[in-house]
Design brief:
A hairpin with a 2-residue loop joins strand 2 and strand 3. The chain folds into two domains: 189 residues, no CATH class; 71 residues, no CATH class. The protein has nine helices and four strands. Helix 6 runs antiparallel to helix 7 and helix 7 packs antiparallel against helix 8. By secondary structure, it is mainly alpha-helical.
């Protein structure tokens, strides 16, 4: 075995146990991600200068929205996994659909659930759907980053076989004897750090003044980042590679890039928020 090859550091899947209450790393990632996202969203809403006018949502409305989006992410994520990744199994074992502690969440399904939550809440509270979508997607990379770290800790969704000379190639305990890419960390960097940084820079440059610009950018950039990550990630065993070596993650990300580009184009063409220009007299 090459000297630089890394044995996967085995973690306890349980992050916290208090008597009968057991919190696993995956659940903890969701909890911390939602809390940090809520804190960051509140900071954005408080800064009117970022919007060019008063923020389109109040702090009490944001507090109410957190429950809506949490339900949307969980229901959508699980539904997406059942439909996109393992439908034959769940048709035979329908009772396991509700067993979330066993893992199995789809980002693309969770995103659709989040979209539904945004649309329903915005219409009920007379809020701009695009602006609420901007807030939601601006904070989403925080949860994505923590979720990928949880995937790594759980030794799941590991990468494809890697050249043993790769310094950070790892032997995963449930991934066979060959070294693999720690693709969960690649995705944490792309979908979390890179995406968050790009959106934060855009916000600083006034992107929130154009409703939908952050939303469209998130959708498009995530789609690109996911396709890049899929080149290093081992496909789900029940699906394997699809047409021409494509994976389900790649196929589901292509429409995201297209839709994101359309939303970006419409947002750029829309007049930015802010005081109306004065007409010389």
């Amino acid at each position: 075995m090459p000297l630089l090859l890394i044995d996967f550091p085995v973690f306890n899947p349980v992050a916290l146990a208090l008597g009968p209450i057991v919190i696993r790393w995956y659940a903890l990632a969701y909890i911390v991600g939602i809390v940090l996202g809520w804190v960051y969203a509140r900071s954005l809403i408080k800064k009117d200068r970022l919007w060019g006018e008063p923020a389109p949502i109040t702090l009490p409305q944001l507090d109410d929205f957190i429950l809506w989006v949490t339900i949307g992410i969980i229901v959508g994520g699980r539904t997406g996994y059942v439909l996109f990744y393992n439908l034959p199994f769940f048709i035979e074992h329908p009772s396991e659909i509700l067993e979330l502690w066993k893992g199995g969440m789809s980002f693309h399904g969770g995103f659709l659930g989040c979209v539904a939550a945004v649309m329903l809440f915005a219409r009920r509270n007379n809020i701009s759907i695009l602006s609420l979508g901007d807030i939601t997607t601006a904070v989403a990379p925080i949860g994505l980053f923590l979720g990928r770290l949880a995937n790594f800790i759980n030794s799941e969704l590991w990468g494809r076989h890697a050249d043993p000379s790769l310094p950070w190639a790892m032997i995963f305990p449930n991934g066979g004897p060959l070294p693999r890419h720690p693709s969960q960390l690649y995705e944490a960097g792309l979908e979390g750090i890179v995406l968050f940084t790009a959106l934060a820079i855009m916000i600083r440059m006034g992107a929130l003044k154009r409703p939908g610009l952050i939303l469209g950018s998130f959708i498009a950039i995530y789609g690109i980042a996911r396709i890049i990550g899929e080149h290093f990630r081992e496909p789900d065993p029940q699906l394997g590679f699809l047409w021409g070596g494509l994976t389900m993650g790649m196929l589901l990300s292509v429409p995201m890039i297209i839709v994101g580009a359309i939303i970006i184009t419409a947002a750029v063409r829309r007049r930015a928020n802010g005081p109306a220009p004065t007409t010389p007299t």
